[in-house]
Design a protein that fits this description.
The protein has 440 residues and is α/β, with parallel strands linked by helices. It is built from 13 helices and 14 strands. α1 packs antiparallel against α2 and α4 packs across α8.
Length: 440
């Protein structure tokens, strides 16, 4: 590996940083000409230079930057371990799959077990339940928080229920006092999808730290980015081992990339029906995948992590600015933070009241023309999506609010790249439309 203190390397990195700082400088905002995006990455020269630093190592797969990123990310969230993967969706798959491992004994989830979730959300919170032949049980969400209705969570728990897997919608933590109590009372496992919520807190603790496993995404839209990427959080070494096994082809070996014989008995194992002494690096205890990230991605994450507190603060400021602008506007149902939480808002959700005679799609098309980014609250009521028409499942209610989210809700951005001028342009445009003053 090239020497990290080579003066030529320092010169390269200084040049890259200077170039990137100049090329990444934002353009002056011109309403209607420069987009006001719903989300986006915020990069600087240090980010680009750190990726180049990783490239100059010539290592590429998981290496020193991955080790440092996992360590610092775990410390930030307040968990024992963070395992870097190639996406937030992969993180969800690995986080739940790890809890099916026979190595967990009686705690392991088994095909046919029920997992409580919500009907409104992103598909890859639901998909791992189905992929592991578990049965989803759907609760409805509250309008405002867009997280689970507490009474329905309690009603959802039956004799076959073994776990809860839900997301903190748009960065707004679900009721973790209730959920952790239910898990304790009914001996349930908890998979905490914090993909949209890095930096959000509940009772002062960061989300992702409450579950048996937790997840986060580093897609460019999220709180920090590694391009593509995600991570799985875990508190117990036994669970971490299974997380890493499912991520790393399903292998039983736990050597880090590039290392051999960590256990000290590489050729002394005898598992299953394999011959005694079969190389432990090629023993597989799970039906796994290769879902690892690269060291270049981890290098970007390590640089971005240094800025996360500032990114979170800016998201909260942007949310507060939009909230103040929309307060008092008839017909707009504004977001509500879950009690005891401090969200690092991923976006600003709005629901159009039933008595507001406005078509949501017309409003979104209007905003699109104005170059204002919008998004739906993901898949809406997922049971109405084509992919899930025939799945085995159970529901707690008529999912009326999930249907309302599907037809009357949307969200706009809070990400740190939005300026006050952009926020005001977004707010003015929406207010003009709902009050009948809009002009193209």
């Amino acid at each position: 590996m090239p020497e990290a203190d080579d003066p030529r390397r320092a010169e390269i990195l200084d040049t890259v940083k200077a170039y990137a700082d100049q090329s990444l400088a934002p353009r002056a905002f011109v309403p209607g000409e420069i987009p006001a995006p719903v989300s986006g990455k915020v990069l600087d020269g240090e980010d680009i230079a750190t990726m180049v630093d990783a490239c100059l190592d010539g290592w590429l797969t998981a290496g020193r930057f991955t080790a440092a990123f996992q360590r610092e990310l775990a410390a930030f969230v307040g968990v024992r371990s963070a395992s870097f993967v190639n996406s937030g969706s992969s993180a969800n798959l690995v986080a739940l799959s790890a809890l099916t491992s026979p190595k967990l004994g009686d705690q392991a989830l088994k095909p046919g077990d029920e997992v409580v979730t919500v009907a409104t959300g992103f598909p890859t919170t639901l998909n791992p339940i189905l992929q592991n032949r578990l049965i989803p049980v759907f609760a409805d969400v509250e309008i405002g928080t867009y997280d689970a209705i507490g009474e329905q969570l309690e009603a959802a728990i039956g004799p076959k229920t073994r776990a809860i897997m839900m997301a903190h919608t748009l960065g707004n933590p679900f009721d973790l006092d209730l959920v952790t109590r239910l898990c304790k009372e009914h001996n349930l496992l908890l998979v905490e999808d914090a993909c949209d919520a890095l930096g959000s807190t509940y009772n002062g603790s960061r989300v992702g730290s409450f579950g048996d496993t937790g997840t986060v995404s580093f897609y460019p839209a999220h709180h920090i980015t590694t391009g593509e990427g995600g991570a799985v959080f875990s508190k117990r070494p036994l669970v971490t081992r299974q997380v890493e096994s499912f991520r790393d082809w399903g292998r039983d070996c736990y050597c880090e990339t590039g290392c051999d014989n960590t256990c000290g008995k590489r050729f002394e194992w005898q598992l299953g029906e394999l011959p005694a002494g079969y190389d432990h690096k090629y023993i597989y205890s799970h039906i796994g995948y290769n879902l690892k990230g690269t060291d270049i991605q981890a290098a970007l994450g390590l640089s971005q992590l240094k800025k996360l507190d500032g990114f979170v603060a800016r998201r909260k400021e942007n949310f507060a600015h939009l909230y103040a602008r929309f307060t008092g506007v008839d017909g707009l149902i504004l977001p509500v933070a879950t009690p005891n939480s401090d969200p690092a808002w991923f976006g600003f959700p709005i629901t159009l009241a039933d008595d507001l005679n406005i078509d949501r799609e017309e409003l979104m098309r209007f905003l699109e023309v104005k170059k204002i980014g919008t998004r739906l609250i993901f898949a809406g009521n997922m049971l109405r999506q084509p992919a899930y028409r025939d799945i085995e499942h159970r529901v707690v209610s008529d999912l009326a609010n999930s249907d309302k989210v599907m037809t009357r809700s949307f969200w706009i951005g809070t990400y740190p790249g939005l300026t006050e001028a952009m926020l005001d342009y977004m707010a003015d445009s929406i207010i003009d439309f709902v009050t009948g003053k809009a002009k193209l």
